[in-house]
Write a structure and sequence with these properties.
169 residues, flat, four-stranded antiparallel β-sheet, binds zinc ion
Length: 169
């Protein structure tokens, strides 16, 4: 589960080109004219967005939205006034550790045996065993929040410049 923030109508550019598999399956080694992957070109392009975008987990996205003063929901878009509001929120958050603090969290360790008990039968003997392995939960530092807010700000400014919207979901 993750949320991507990106700009509408983002152009893409080709970052790599690979030979298409179809050339391995024709008798003369030429591309298959009706190939659904390469349309007979014999190669496939790998494209990336040319404008900034960022992807993060739902939890982190919600926390970042809170930090910049936006209601944390699964998806949405900013344009005009709401885009200006988001830009302002990013700038405030970048300048205020207390605003960013809502998005930070300490790393923690969930001790083994946190998932309750089960009864294990061993021949005629029944015994109780605790379930759940020790789990480490990663933290989210202030520095990381700052980077993410900067990412969002960069996306917002580019969208404004291009007359586009920022969407997330
Ligand atoms: Zn092909």
């Amino acid at each position: 589960m993750s949320i991507t923030f990106s700009i509408t109508n983002t152009p893409t550019h080709v970052t790599a080109t690979y030979p298409c598999q179809c050339v391995d399956h024709t008798p003369d080694g030429k591309p298959y004219a009706d190939c659904p992957y390469c349309n007979g070109a014999g190669k496939e392009d790998f494209e990336e967005p040319s404008w900034p975008w960022v992807n993060m987990s739902n939890t982190n996205a919600f926390n970042i939205l809170r930090a910049i003063g936006v209601n944390p929901v699964d998806y949405g878009s900013w344009e005009g006034e709401t885009l200006d509001h988001a830009i302002k929120g990013c700038l405030i958050a970048l300048n205020s550790e207390s605003k960013r603090a809502v998005a930070t969290r300490e790393s923690s360790i969930l001790p083994g045996g946190h998932a309750g008990v089960q009864v294990v039968h061993d021949g005629n003997v029944a015994r109780m065993e605790r379930m759940g392995a020790e789990a480490r939960i990663g933290g989210y530092t202030d520095e990381r929040v700052r980077v993410r807010v900067s990412d969002i700000l960069g996306i917002c400014r580019k969208a404004k410049k291009e007359g586009e919207k920022v969407t997330w979901g």
